[in-house]
Amino acid sequence: DQQVKQNSPSLSVQEGRISILNCDYTNSMFDYFLWYKKYPAEGPTFLISISSIKDKNEDGRFTVFLNKSAKHLSLHIVPSQPGDSAVYFCAARATNFGNEKLTFGTGTRLTIIP
Amino acid sequence: ETGVTQTPRHLVMGMTNKKSLKCEQHLGHNAMYWYKQSAKKPLELMFVYNFKEQTENNSVPSRFSPECPNSSHLFLHLHTLQPEDSALYLCASSQAGPSGGNQETQYFGPGTRLLVL
Questions:
Q1: CB B116 within 8 A of CB B83
Q2: Of B113, B55, B57, whose CA–CA distance to B85 is shortest?
Q3: Lowest-confidence range among A18-22, A91-95, A103-107?
Q4: Three-state secondary structure call for residue A98
Q5: Nearest CA-CA partner of A22 in A7, A12, A10
Q6: Phi then psi dihedrals of residue A97, to 5 deg
Q7: B107 part of contact set with chain A, CB < 8 Å
Q8: Model confidence over A47-72: pLDDT tens digits?
């Protein structure tokens, strides 16, 4: 059973518009969430994270929102740029137990249309 | 070099071969990980090493054998693999906390694309 789900395998967005990537989780013990970005032939690179004590974290064009009651988080990219075209992975961790294990979603391929 | 490096980047092997994947991190971290990424599946954690000690083995078949000689190097020894083991194998590193728990982000290498014939 997948504990972290990214239900949209792909998403296309016009350059300059907002990209919204979604992620749902089932394990209520998760309290730290991360987004990774992956280009072809490269490993995932860390993008942004959020602790469960917050509901929003912003870093430049990237904002992550967390809705704990709905067990849902989303990544907003605005404005979207062609270089944002990549696969985005959502990951979650239960850090309170000293557990370094990250549980990943299957990824969403974002394509920014010029 | 900086970051996390992996060699080889691509590997083709027969089911009777023995090969090793190598990972090296230049970030001063003390925790290292092996992940497997198969097509259309989430990244699957295989092994975790904290301070050179294996702390997690995620029910990985014995045909995969990890080795961590020091906190900067991690190997994955492969023998008698199956075609379904073909995947992208990713190494990552992070800084583990004093109690062994990891509060830090994991940094990934570029991966080794493995094809088993």
A1: yes
A2: B113
A3: A91-95
A4: coil
A5: A7
A6: -100, 15
A7: yes
A8: 999 999 999 999 999 999 999 999 99
The residue assigned the tokens 């996390």 is: B4
Cβ of A98 and B40 within 8 Å? no
**Angstrom distances, CA of residue A92 to CA of A54, A75, A89:** 15, 14, 10
Chain A residues whose CB is inside 8 A of the B27 CB are none
CB-based contact (8 Å) between B42 and chain A? yes
Closest CA to A105 of A71, A78, A77, A80: A71
Tokens 């064009």, residue?
A61
| E-state strands within B58-111 | 64-70, 73-79, 87-94, 107-108
Taking only the tens of pLDDT, chain B with its 117 residues reads 569 999 999 999 998 889 999 999 999 998 899 999 998 788 899 998 887 777 777 789 999 999 999 989 999 999 999 999 999 999 999 887 555 444 568 899 999 999 999
**Phi, psi dihedral angles at A53 (to 5 degrees):** -80, -10
Residue type, A53: I
Which residue on chain A is closest to B98 by alpha carbon?
A98
